[in-house]
C-alpha cells in the first residue's frame, strides 16, 4: 500500500463522463440507467481503499455557467449537451455518495477542478500531503512535492517526474504549455503552428511564456 496522504480529493465530474462512455448501457430492474453510477462508485471505492486518508472530499461541477464562460464565450462550446441517459444518473449518484457520509462539494460558478486546485494548494501550504484522483490533464499544474495525481482508470501516478515524462515540461510550466499548444478538449486555441512538441521545446529553451 502506498504512503497514506493527509487529504484525498476525488474529481467526480471527470470520472462521471468517462464511466458513462467506458461502460455498457447498464440499467436497473426498473429500466433506469446505472452504468455511470456503478463506474464512478467503483473507481471511488478503489481510490479510497488504496488511499485511506483521514480527510476526503468528492467534488463535482455545479450546474450552470462558470466564470470561464464569461471570459471566453467559445469555452467548451464544441461539446454536446449532457445525454439524457447520463443526466438521469447524476442525482442518484450524488445521493449515494451523500448517504455514505462522504464530504461532497459543488460550488456554483466554479468548476470542480478549480475547487480541487484551491483545496489542494491550501492543504499543501499547511503542510499536508495531498493525492488527487482525476482524469483531467489540467491538474498536472498542481503537482509538487506535496501533491500527487492518481488516475484509477489506467492506474497511472503523476509526481513531478511523471509530469515531465508525460508532457516533457515541468508542472509549473503546464499553464504556459497549454497556452502555447492550446487545449482542444476545452475548445481553446493555441498559437498557430505550435503543437505540444514545439511548445515543450520552446519552454525548454526559454523557461516561461513571458521570456519568449
From TrEMBL:
The keyword Hydrolase applies. Transmembrane segments: none annotated. SMART domains: 53EXOc, HhH2. SUPFAM superfamilies: 5' to 3' exonuclease, C-terminal subdomain (SSF47807), PIN domain-like (SSF88723). InterPro entries: 5-3_exonucl_a-hlix_arch_N, 5-3_exonuclease, 5-3_exonuclease_C_sf, DNA_polI_H3TH, FEN, HhH2, PIN-like_dom_sf. One of its GO terms (biological process) is DNA replication, Okazaki fragment processing. CDD domains: H3TH_53EXO (cd09898), PIN_53EXO (cd09859). Residues 4-212 form the 5'-3' exonuclease domain. Keywords: DNA-binding, Hydrolase, Nuclease. Pfam families: 5_3_exonuc, 5_3_exonuc_N. GO terms for molecular function: 5'-3' exonuclease activity; 5'-flap endonuclease activity; DNA binding. The keyword Hydrolase applies. PANTHER family: 5'-3' EXONUCLEASE FAMILY PROTEIN (PTHR42646:SF2), FLAP ENDONUCLEASE XNI (PTHR42646). This is DNA polymerase I. The lineage of its organism: unclassified sequences, metagenomes, ecological metagenomes.
Amino acid at each position: 500500500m502506498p504512503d497514506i496522504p493527509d487529504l484525498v480529493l476525488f474529481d467526480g465530474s471527470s470520472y462521471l463522463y468517462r464511466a458513462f462512455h467506458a461502460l455498457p448501457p447498464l440499467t436497473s430492474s426498473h429500466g433506469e440507467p446505472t452504468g455511470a453510477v456503478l463506474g464512478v462508485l467503483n473507481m471511488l471505492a478503489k481510490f479510497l481503499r488504496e488511499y485511506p486518508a483521514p480527510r476526503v472530499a468528492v467534488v463535482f461541477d455545479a450546474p450552470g455557467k462558470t466564470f470561464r464562460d464569461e471570459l471566453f464565450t467559445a469555452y467548451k462550446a464544441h461539446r454536446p449537451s449532457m445525454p439524457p441517459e447520463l443526466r438521469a444518473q447524476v442525482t442518484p449518484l450524488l445521493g449515494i455518495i451523500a448517504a455514505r457520509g462522504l464530504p461532497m462539494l459543488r460550488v456554483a460558478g466554479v468548476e470542480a477542478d478549480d475547487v480541487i486546485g484551491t483545496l489542494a494548494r491550501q492543504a499543501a501550504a499547511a503542510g499536508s500531503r495531498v493525492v488527487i484522483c482525476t482524469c483531467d490533464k489540467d491538474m498536472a499544474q498542481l503537482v509538487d512535492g506535496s501533491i500527487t495525481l492518481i488516475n484509477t482508470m489506467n492506474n497511472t501516478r503523476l509526481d513531478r517526474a511523471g509530469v515531465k515524462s508525460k508532457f516533457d515540461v515541468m508542472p509549473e510550466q503546464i499553464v504556459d504549455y497549454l497556452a502555447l499548444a492550446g487545449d482542444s478538449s476545452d475548445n481553446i486555441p493555441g498559437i498557430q503552428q505550435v503543437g505540444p512538441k514545439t511548445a515543450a521545446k520552446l519552454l525548454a529553451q526559454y523557461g516561461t511564456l513571458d521570456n519568449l
